[in-house]
Amino acid sequence: MFVDRVKIHIKGGNGGNGAVSFYRAKYVTNGGPDGGDGGKGGDIVFMADEGLNTLMDFRYKKIFKAQAGSDGSKRNRTGADGEDTVIKVPVGTVIREAESGKIMADMSKKDDVRIIIKGGKGGKGNQHFATPTRQAPRYCEKGRVSKEYDVILELKLIADVGLIGFPNVGKSTILSMVTNASPKIANYHFTTLSPNLGVVRSRWGEDFVMADIPGLIEGASEGVGLGHEFLRHVERTKVFIHVVDAAGLEGTDPIDNIEKINGELAKYNQELLKRPMIIAANKMDIPEAMENFNKIKSVYEAKGFKVFPVSAASNDGLDELISVSANILRDYPNDIVFEEDFDEYDIYEDISETENQPFTVEKAGERYYVVSGVGVEKMIGYTNIETEKGFAFFQKYLREKGIIEKLEESGINEGDTVKIYDLEFEYYR
Questions:
Q1: pLDDT in tens, 264-312
Q2: Could you give the angle at the alpha carbon of 14 between the alpha carbons of 380 and 9, nearest 5°?
Q3: d(CA 347, CA 341)
Q4: What mean pLDDT comes out for the span 346-351?
Q5: Which of 123, 166, 202, 391 is deepest in the core (most CB within 10 A)?
Q6: Dist. CA 415–CA 405, nearest whole Å
Q7: SS in 3 state form for 46-103?
Q8: Helices (H) and strands (E) in the chain — how many of each?
Q9: Could you give the CA distance from residue 174 to residue 318 in angstroms, rounded to a whole number?
Q10: Model pLDDT, residue 356
Q11: How far apart are the first and last CA of the chain?
Q12: CA distance 382 to 394
């Protein structure tokens, strides 16, 4: 079974908590703080594996979590870092954030490795908070909670040559004749329900990959049939071989069919029409095909397209078709960009970059104030405010950052309630 689009959930490992500990030894009555730091959480890492060609494995496992970092311990021992979770995907997989649709990574080359989520930092132990006036701090930092996302994995096949055209024109037969692929072949519409790939062992140059792109019908660009599911696979194809039924066995006009397919490509992505295209007039072993072939040749060679008479059934003309394709690939630019560039996804935001970010103070009700801001919210996550000294340290942070001053300017009085993120407390000077 070929699966080319799945949704999974990924989460990085949380950082381990720092430790509160004091040195204890024989004859040492007042040892200093020696609480170790928490370990870093594991990363979520994606790797492009050339040995994979489908996303089918993700139908059975949809949740991936990296290991959390271990907590710090006494005697300045740092907790162990959590193990990374490595997720292998086929080459050509695009990773999108499900809610926004934004591209997080494009695994377009073999052995590509991308860190999508970095694990949370470990919290600092109480040894870091000792000062000349506070020599026995009884609080530490909590480990940072890592990010998590629902992501969409989309596989876009990477082929050198793509066979396009209406169903039942002979694409699968051509693929079976010139490559090592063994697609299903039958005289029915939509026989091919998944793209097939094969390697052409070329006598005229380097070997190359050929793909049979199914599902291209009128309306495919609007999602008719399985249009969108298959059109994504043409985006990374270097050369198109447009296969057309020159015999007109379905009672349709071959020229009209070519224009309809080109129209669908243009609607989906205008850039696709700029790719090199060869027209293969198939089924030339049928006498009625010659008249249509002459029409196709006169129309499209005048537009600069090469038109070849072929018969997939008898293998006539296929050598010349493959030879021309190999020549085009030989001169193909190496630096072509098949998709628009995208900004690297914001996979990790260090707390040091947020401490000086602005905050807001809002009076949300009678004797009720709300403080919002990235830096102050992250400080809550990093400070153990469940202890008296930890809460005092947090209050010092609020005063040093000017938050207390802003609350007083807003008219706060003793006993009023302050809310920061999910924490509520009464204000006292």
A1: 888 888 888 888 999 999 999 998 889 999 999 999 999 999 999 999 8
A2: 115
A3: 17
A4: 41
A5: 123
A6: 16
A7: EEEECCCCCCHHHHCCCEEECCCCCCCECCCECCCCCCCEEEEEECCEEEEECCCCCE
A8: 8, 18
A9: 8
A10: 60
A11: 68
A12: 10
* Cβ count near 298 (within 10 Å): 11
Six token digits for residue 420: 């920061």
Tokens found for residue 146: 């890592």
**Given the structure tokens 């070849």, which residue do they identify?**
308
| CA–CA distance, 429 with 415 (Å, rounded to integer) | 10
C-alpha distances out from residue 12 to 87, 298, 383, 411, Å: 12, 60, 21, 42
Instruction: Please state whether beta strands 85-90 and 44-49 pair in parallel, antiparallel, or not at all (unpaired).
Output: parallel
Q: Which two tokens stand for residue 213?
A: 């792109």
Nearest CA among 16, 18, 14, 63 for reference residue 43: 14
List of residues 6+ apart from 353 with CB closer than 8 A: none
Separation of alpha carbons 353 and 69, rounded Å: 22
Residue 233 makes CB contacts below 8 A (sequence gap 6+) with: 4, 156, 157, 159, 162, 195, 211, 213
Q: Is the dihedral of CA 316, 318, 323, 328 positive or negative?
A: positive
pLDDT of residue 186: 40
| Residue 166 DSSP code | S
